[in-house]
Design a protein that fits this description.
heterodimer; A: alpha/beta; FAD/NAD(P)-binding domain; 3 domains; 5-stranded parallel β-sheet; 17 helices; B: TIM Barrel; Alpha-Beta Plaits; 2 domains; 4-stranded antiparallel β-sheet; 20 strands; 30% helix
Chain lengths: 459, 424
Amino acid sequence: MDAGEDCVNYSKNFSEMEPGWGLDQAVAEAGRCLLCHEPPCSKGCPAQTDPGAFIRKLRFRNVTGAIRTVKRNNILAGACAVLCPTARLCEKECSACGIDRAIEIGKIQRFLVEQSWKTGWNISADLAGEKPAARPEKIAVVGAGPAGLACAAELAKQGYPVTVFEARPEPGGVLRYGVPAFRFAAGFLGRELADVESLGVKFQCSAPLAGKGAAEDLLKKGYSAVFLALGLWEPVRLKEDAGAIKGLTTSMDFLAALREGKFAETGRRIKGKVCAVIGGGSVAMDCARSALRLGAADVYLLYRRSYAQMPAEADERELALREGAHFILLNQPVDYVTGPRGELRGIRLVRTRLGAKDSSGRRKPVAVKGTEWVLPVDAAIEAIGYRPRRGSPSWYPSIAVDGGGLIRAREQDCRTSRPKIFAGGDIVRGPDLVVRAVADGKTAARSIMEYLGGSWPTK
Amino acid sequence: MANKVDLSVNFCGKRFPNPFLLSSSPVSNTAEMIERAFEHGFGGVVYKSLSSPHVEIVHPSPRMQGYDYGPARLAGLQNVEQTSDRPLKDNLEDIAYLKKRWPDRVVIASIMGFAASEWKDLAVAAAGSGADMLELNFSCPHMAVEGAGMKVGQSFHLVQKFTEIVRREVKLPLLAKLTSNVADISEPALYAKKGGADAITAINSVRALTEVGLDDFVPKPNIFGKGALSGYTGPGIKPIGLRCISELAGNKELGLPLSGCGGIETWIDAAEYLLCGASTLQMTTGVIHYGYRIVEDMIEGLSDFMAAKGLRSVSEMVGQALPHMCGVGEFDVSRQGAAAYDLDRCVGCGQCYIVCQDAGAGTLGWDSAKRRPVPDEKRCYSCMICSFVCPVGDPPLITYKEIRGKKPHIAARRGQKTVVSGKP
């Protein structure tokens, strides 16, 4: 770590997640569970998580059974437990809401995953007695994010040799490069990746899909099926030609640099500086909180709609505010103000008011004429969305994509327009939740197996 | 305090400022401890059992084992505590000090002889220290000394014999503390009365085993690789204590005042013991769990309850539940009812449906789409287990309702619907 950047304890600020629960806390929370008939929570998860079963198991001290339920269903159960907006998924369905508040299912699930590490429970050992016959068909998974990892793990469990090709130096995708370590630590990810590897999945990192027809080429190289789970790795920009401004960066570069440990270099641009974050989603909150942890003098979060329309989860918004971010709402950033050496001096904003609802169902911001003003800033981070890599459709010319470059694939089986090539996760859905990517990975695995003539086990 | 209610009670001719006493146990081990209990408001104490200075008492280690129910700590407590391991002389001095320093509180000395002569010596010594009364410990279920404690309480002639020995030596009121580990606690109580006892204390701890270590298969408390059956106390034994007190109070031949003991922790427990016939109340495990301060809430809670009920003295409450008790064969089975559901407040958990199917009449329906039970009052057994698992309380969502003219139910055979019996 960087000794020159005194006062800012990066390792503390960035590697420590909020601690998880211990056995007593988890059992006490399970004690609040109403143990519902036909548990509604178990219908609230895109990835078929069954809290009704694992909470009951915990309640009756069948802790190993509870771990088994969680990890067999979802190899990334820990990641989902930490990152899922449970309040609007499983917990939203909870009957205990009628008494006081929902059972904290995410916290219980995280406890079970961490308890598995503590007790030495291991998925591959647990499955050892029921290993299916080895399958001859090799499968290629492109992208080691949540969708790719889930698909690879499920296929490996069914006996397929799976290789995951990852563009970046290490696997994890958005879990490693897109979420700050204080929300999801590398060590936590590492243990879940080890679970995937223990199932026999092979990884090839720094192996990006590149060149015309690269996806189809995998089929020619002997892979019987390909699952494309590329994710979205091109930042949407406020102005396409803004790249040369000193002090301006994108959420993608900013967060990835921090995950790569480039604290000194990144911190130098933020520490003691007035910093703006543009956007109102989860990533914007991550950027604002990261900038505060780097020692920014002030962090302004600029958002064109109002608080209630922010796409970020309620708890993320509250954390950003509590940690000191200033929210400037109903203001649309329109341009950057630069100095003589191309350095960022400020952001030009125009006030907005909320008009009629747009296609997203949220009220649309309308610029108020004559209200332009400049917020002086030293640094700015754009966090206004991700899209497919420029030119990515050429890597798979036989596959239909939409106007924005998203791959067209069927939700129910992840099939693309090209036989043998399947796709899921954000490259199909656009920006979405980790758990939906996991769900796609699981769907794709089953679909691939059935396509190859195998029969997916019912239980 | 909100209500000035006189909680004083007369027991064996002695005025107690309130009915709350420490029972003979680790919580009444020294004058220093008891003094603090008095400061919190305890009306008296049964001083930890004194035994012969000729028999050395050495406590096993560890002494106790907590018994939890889910997240609820200390639903019960198992212990292998012996009689006082302090020198008899020190204990007698402590008793004398307490009587001098706290003349308005009642100090009862518990004694346990390991031989006939010891009962006599201990009685004389305790009386000499100024104790107001003596309690004869015929009930400790885990004495290391053979033939003591519960073993006496189970040999009724010994109960009488040792009571007689003490009776001959001292004029003080005598309480015989009896064990519930017998078929009918009234029997030894009558022997105690014959021997000259003035009152009965019930119950002592129940001989039990709370837990077995799953790593080493050693029953707990694990005392260096060994466990033993020993005394179990706390909220888990309150129902047994209430049974014994109501049996003793209901026994016309006995007619002795009763000191109730077993799982008393709140003023509600206290009120129940009083209503079943106890006129003083003793406690230990509640103190082990929460400290002496629990007595403050018992005093305040019982006072408010009595004021609300218009009860002017504790003695007015004693035994008021007894006229409402009967044998199971004496119930009026011509009157029947059903579980009534206030479905507007239902949260849709469906636990009622599960237990009705698996343990009840199996007549409750379930609307999957609405996530609501579908009650059938006509065919309901009125076992009421659905109401015990329903999480909605204050007031309860599921309550008992009498249905005039309803016939009792007879269970159907497997695969059949339940049928209504033609005759009650």
